[in-house]
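Annotated sample (chain length 113).
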Amino acid sequence: MPQINPQLPSIPTKRYFTISEASDLCEVEAHVLRYWEQEFSQLKPLKRRGNRRYYQRHDVILIRQIKDLLYNNGYTIKGAKQKLSDDENHEESQSSTLDAIRSEVENLIDILD
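Output written by the structure step:
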C-alpha cells in the first residue's frame, strides 16, 4: 500500500468523485488530472454524459501515488510510469507465487488425506 500523505484530506466513503472533488482530495488542479490521464494508462476514470469524469477511490489513491512520485520523490513522468509499471508487475508476480504456493499446499493436503 502506498504511503499516503497525512496532510491530504481523508477520502470519503463515496463510490464516485467528480474531477473537482478528486482535485480537492489530491490537492492538484483539474487540468493536471486530465493531463495525467493521458500519460498514465492506469488512470482511467469513468466517463459519462458529455465526457464528465467520475473517479473511484482507487483512482484517487493512484493520483496521490503519482503526485507523491512526481512532486515529493523527484520522478519524471517517464520514471513515474516505469515505477508504477514495475510495482504492478511485482504485485502480479507475488500473486502468481501465492497461487502456486496455495496449489502446492492443496496438493500436499490431498496426499496427506
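Annotation: The helical segments are 19-26, 30-39, 57-72, 77-112.
Annotation: The CA atoms of residues 70 and 77 lie 7 Å apart.
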